[in-house]
Amino acid sequence: MCVLLLSLGQHRKYPLIVAANRDEFLARPTQAAGFWQDAPQVLAGRDLSQGGTWLGITRGGRFAALTNFRDPPAKRADRPSRGHLITTFLQGNDTPSTYVAELSKRAHEYNGFSLIVGHGDEFYYYANREREPRALAPGLYGLSNHLLDTPWPKVVRGKQALTQAMLSDNGPSAEELFAILADRAPADEAELPHTVPSGERELWLSPLFVSGNDYGTRSSTVLWIDNNDEVTFIERTFQGDPERYSTVEHRFRLNDRK
Fold it and tell me: What pLDDT does 100 receive?
């Protein structure tokens, strides 16, 4: 996943609002979001190459999402899949604070990542390039392929748009959230980070929605939980063409946040 917008306790009707794009190679096999047969409490998409995921929630309200830390020279092919960091939390019983504390002891085994885990009112952020876990207070957060709230143009743009969308008493609609995620405007060249050797490639990666022949935004996900513990999870899946997509939608009520 390459951009995640997260609202914690910032709207009177929705304690949690999430809008996220997953960017990946188009050839990487992926299963659309659904409840897993081997873990029926887990709702998430699935990376069929390694078996993990990039974002998910359980019927009890455990939430997790992950982005890779973009640092091509440091990436090693023999490292374990980062997608399993999400599945381990979603299928486990550890509190978010306990999980990230234990993970920090072995996080050096993985390529760079940023992880957000939450359950109930407790949310934590952990990045193995930052080392120290952070408890997340109520607020609006943005994450791309660096550290939390690093002001990359797509993060700044997404947070501003989500802030504006939440001014409505009814909160942002699914279409408003998807419109934010569909933004294909590139950043100004002067604002670009320097994470890849080519400035042209950096510019291509700079929009919230990335379009390419072999790599780009594969899915957009919006998720919210209301004050009655009703969950709405909608995913749009793309295969190279941003104008054509398939949609899955799941609605359910949390079962006592177990």
Answer: 98
The CATH number of the domain where 242 resides is what? 3.60.60.10
Question: d(Cα 53, Cα 62) in Å, to the nearest integer?
Answer: 14
Nearest-angstrom CA–CA distance, 92 and 111: 22
- pTM over 0.85, yes/no: yes
Q: What letter represents residue 244's amino acid?
A: R
Residues 6+ apart with CB under 8 A from 119: 60, 61, 62, 63, 95, 96, 257
Q: What is the C-alpha separation between 130 and 90, in angstroms, rounded? A: 23
Averages of pLDDT over runs of 10 residues in the chain (258 residues) are: 94 97 95 97 96 97 97 93 97 98 96 98 97 95 97 97 95 97 94 84 94 94 97 93 91 81
pLDDT at 257: 54
User: For residue 100, which of 141, 61, 62, 128 has the smallest C-alpha distance?
Assistant: 128
Domain count, the chain: 1
- Residue 157 falls within a domain, yes or no? no
Q: What is the three-class DSSP state of 204? A: helix
- 150-176 as b/e, with b when 16 or more CB fall inside 10 Å? eebbbbebbbebbeebbeeeebbebeb
